[in-house]
Amino acid sequence: MQDQTAKQDIKPSRKGWLSRLARDQKGNTLAIVGAALVPLTAMIGSGVDMSRAYMAKQRLQAACDAASLAGRRAMTNDTLTSTVTSEATKFFNFNFPQASYQTAAFTPSVTRPSSGVVAVSASTTIPTAIMKIFGFTSLPISVTCDASLNFVNTDVLLVLDVTGSMAEDVNGNATGVAADQKITALRDAVMALYDALAPVQTQLAANNMRLRYGIVPYSSTVNVGALIRAVNPSYLADDVDLEARVANYTTPTYIGTPGTPEPPVQEIYGSSLTQSDCDKYGRNVSFTGFSPTTATGGGPPPAATWARAFSNDEASGTDWGWSTASDRTTGGGDNRMSCRRRYVETDTTYITDYRFTNYSYIEESFDVRQYKLGNSVAMATGSDGRIDNSDQLDPFELAQIGIGVTTTNISWNGCIEERETVPTIRAASGYTIPSGAYDLDIDLVPNSANTKWRPQIPEAVYLRANGTGYQASSLGVAACPAAAKRLDTWTRGDLQSYVNTLTPTGSTYHDIGMIWGARLVSTAGAFADGCATYNGMPCSRHIIFMTDGALAPTTTAYSAYGVEYMDQRVTGDPAGAAQYESHLQRFKMICNAAKSGNVGASIWVIAFGTTLSNDMRDCASNQNQASTIANRTALINKFTEIGNNIGALRLTQ
């Protein structure tokens, strides 16, 4: 009974503990946390690993974009070469070095999926830090990108130095080998630029847009006469003041004009003569008892003169002892008879003309109304012949009114003198263009004599000793480069034919080249060739300025500003002490003006075979657009690079 009772006592106690345990909630949180730890770890781990993968992919995408842009920039002639692949890979690896973010090794793929496009792709993996405990040891990453050189409407104005030094090699040595001359390298570089842009030009044309080129070769002036005349001949002056040689025809001479002879006059000798003496009388020849009578009179010229012509035809028996003569006696041994003679009197009147006396070397106004139109104009080349009235004549005038003057025909070569300017521009002038400097006013349409351009006439210009009238020496440089071309679309053949005409000549005047480069790419002014929009699409404007030397104006060159020694249009000083400074400041002014306003051009400056001065560097739109080029290959590569950068290079994917 005791044992049974004991067992009964234990049972209720055990049931109470289990019941209490069932009812007790202490420790439940730990169990729940323990149960949730696994999915929570997976969630956090995936976030961490995915974040790392995301950051790695972003960096990889940036590298891909840079690589495609670099590859497209390096592509020429729309051809995928090892150079393009190498350049793209280099940029990819620079922006995403191998093993970045612990990624697996990979090799970027560079392809050309379509015309004008460079595509880059890359695939790799990144190891997981936490997800690997769940069996995910790595995450894949892949990127793709395309870059295309897509243009808006684009105008490219080439301002090219074609001065005499372009006939030298890059070391400044004279050479007769065309292949070594800098001008040959320039021709090839222009064609390389064209080839770099040719695929885009085709694409633009297919989309009703355009890529145009204009060219301004320059030296001491520019050849733009035909361009001005085609727009409006009245933009060219009718009269041009030149430092010239004029002929003084002031030595009088007289030209007689005989009148109609008067009827014959008969004269009878006062007494009888022998036949021999009668014959002498008829011819107005002296004999005993007779002296010749006056045969000429009047004058001196230019007063009228007269002259008597005597005749004797005694052979007919009509002068000596004619039939009705008072004395026809031949007897008595004296053999004498009456004698008569006849003469005809002619009056001569005179005109006065004038022959050459000497030359004067002065400033002379030339009428160029026909010359500026491109017509052939006669010009006196000698000092022969005569004129009707005493005068001082320029070669054009003498050819028109001279009688018997030697002449030649000349036509305008197209090179110009600039319109009026001011002689006070110096380094301290800053960038504000003075109101009277019409030459630097890019968009000013000619509206007066001072704002018109003037044809050069190198055949009529002479250099004289300053302040004297009659001392002359040979003229300095009178160069005329190849004709400039307005913005237009070009075929490769046409452009090649044109650049082959570029010939080294003249001195280096950077300002006149940049003036006309800006003028021909501006959206306003006399030409207004540049565009803000075309067919609803925007336009970009670029000036590529290439020179092989420093600014080198001279006082004796016949430049776009006349002959500075005498005209003094730029310096106001025959010695030209400030000539370099003044032309340099003009260049800086026009560079500044070309970057804004109606031009708004992006300027590229290339110094070929010479140093790049700070002034030249500052002309460029930014430091990356100013370059020093040492040789032919580098020049061609630079023009190609500019071609690849001129357009709107952008990512297309």
**Low-confidence sequence ranges:** 1-10
Q: Which radius of gyration do the C-alpha atoms yield? A: 50 Å
Largest sheet: 7 strands, mixed
Structural class: alpha+beta
Report the count of strand segments: 27
Helix tally? 13
Please report the distance between the alpha carbons of the first and last residues: 96 Å
Task: Please state roughly what percent of the residues sit in beta strands, choosing from under 5%, 5-15%, 15-25%, 25-35%, 35-45% or over 45%.
Answer: 25-35%
Helix content: 25-40%
Mean pLDDT: 88
Query: How would you describe the shape?
Result: rod-shaped
Short description:
By secondary structure, the protein is an alpha+beta fold. The chain contains 13 helices and 27 strands. Strands 4, 5, 20, 21, 22, 25 and 26 form a 7-stranded mixed β-sheet that branches. Strands 6, 7, 9, 10, 12 and 14 form a 6-stranded antiparallel β-sheet that branches.
List keywords for this structure.
single chain; alpha+beta; 6-stranded antiparallel sheet; disordered N terminus; 653 residues
Description:
- The structure is a single chain.
- This protein has 653 residues and is of the alpha+beta class.
- Helix content is 29%, strand content 25%.
- It is built from 13 helices and 27 strands.
- The strands form eight sheets. Strands 4, 5, 20, 21, 22, 25 and 26 form a seven-stranded mixed sheet that branches. Strands 6, 7, 9, 10, 12 and 14 form a six-stranded antiparallel sheet that branches.
- Helix 2 (28-74) runs antiparallel to helix 3.
- Residues 1-10 have low confidence and may be disordered.
